[in-house]
Amino acid sequence: MRGEAQIVILAGGLGTRLYSRTNGNPKPMAKLVNFSLIEHQIRYCASLGFSSFAILTSYKSELLEQHVKSIKLSGITIEFLKEDVARGTAGALLSFASQLQKTIIVLYGDTYLTVDLRDILRSYYYERRTESFIGTVLVHPNSHPHDSDIIVVDKHNWIKEVIPYPRLNDQSSRNLVNAALYVLNAVTLSKLTLEHLEKDKTDIAKDLFPYLIRKNYKLKAIHNRWFIKDCGTPNRIDSVAEMLTYPGTNLNSQQPKGVVFLDRDGCVNEEVGYITKPEQFKILPGVANGIRILNKANIPLICVTNQPVIARGEATHEDMHLIHSKLDYELGETGAFIDKIIYCPHHPDTGFAGEVKDLKILCDCRKPSVGMALEASKHFKIDFSKSWMIGDTTTDVQFAKNLGIKSILLRTGYAGSDRRENTVPDFIFDDLMQASNFIVFDYPRIQDFFKRRINILLDKQIIFIGGKSRAGKSTIAKVIQKLLHGLGDDVLIIPTDNWLIDPEQRNDRMRLEQKYDLQNLNEFTQNLNCGNRPIYASVDHRICCHDSSVSQPITIFKNTKIILEGCATSMIDLDIISQGIFIWVDIDEDVRKHRFYKKYFQRGLCEKKILEIYRDRVQHEDEVLEQSRELFDIFWRLE
Ligand SMILES: [Zn+2]
Asked: Between vectors from CA 194 to CA 193 and to CA 199, what angle results, nearest 5°?
């Protein structure tokens, strides 16, 4: 691909907003971590094999030229084209179009990018056969859509309209903005003059593109999560610098990365049955914060939602567009965005009045089928082994299972009470905010901690996980299970609460050891320790906050590693264990108390009653547990 296209950098702007960072030098000279913005661009493009550059300058062009010439790179040619009077981005491009190569990739001098330019060029070449085709435009959602140029596309991604900023209270457009990167046909452009645009100073997005659209030239939008960010203000340049230095951030556009799939109704917005109009759509509290956490970590967020209302004829694609525009707008107000929303409009059952016959089919995209994830993989390079699904129904959990990705059930919306699928989520959290925090911060920390102790975990046949109630034992068990699964171990988690005695014989004033059938638990553990398998265990299938369990017996095979998890691990007879490792899960007492209160609050208990139970527990359970703490081998505490 070398030499096939020329990189054109628009570097003529005054850069007033970046003055504090440039001391009056041209904007592309502003420093981002170790290099100037323009040096990043040139080095990046050269690394992809592009060797021909044209830099369109105006303001203090000599300074910029000097700076660029000081960049030591061999094998590239850089041409400087200087405008005497600045006529805007479109003005500059049109003035010099006849001196450029036929195919040009246009960059703005104040952006930082790791876009796969070879890929975007391939799609440009693919469309070249289309009549009146003039170029491709990179689009994406961003955190400030209200002051960005919005690109409106048809269903085949041909650009219909450019809505320039500032836009006040426009809730009818999706958050799809001009990412400021184009591949254009310079030969066609060279036939246009500024007179065509009827202005002295003209902008590519605001003037040239609308003109081209009016004249029936075809511009294609490319929607992708390639990394490109505007660094035109001190705030923006700082946030990009922060991302570049953020541990664990993967900005490499060529490498597949983990994404988060997210269900819509009941997770993002209130679950109120079928939604057919924007007025019925109300974002849940904390959702914008949760989404921003993922945005900041640069993890693509893809909303996948079943919308059979369309097949039922109760809502149209246009209604869906308006609902999602409202969602985009309200998130955009708070600096949050969803990368892509994919919905399944189908429904398998026919026989409703007003239904759309064509959509009444058994499709591949209705969850728990995985069609929408496959659709997403056309736009994002997805590493499924690092991806997540967050939902509020068993259908969402099953979707994750079918894809082989990690699942999180939220206690919002249906909170798993739909019971459509017989499946168990990997993790359960109260809301999206908790889930995002877990994905971005806690999960990697827990994984790192146990990765460093992996040899001892691999070595032992039984892993005991203990600690006080609500400390997060089952979460730790799940992370360890995933870790060992990844290394080829077959691991089964068995909660010791399976050995709780009959609820009718239990009460809060009993001592901990009275609440369990310890004799039976010890016998079971002894059998495991001696390798007496296959034996049968009852594996807890607790679905969610309702705490209703469906237990089913399963066979444990000889090579299966067992994680026994729960408070009762503290009371197992240590004399019978030779093959085990004990992990204690600790937590800040205030956080634990808060979780405790929340659990009983959700069950409808009053504060006074909850405090009573809490005190009983501290007295009857926590003391026993605290005494056993020193017998454990590994201590985990989330800070
Ligand atoms: Zn479908």
From this structure: 160
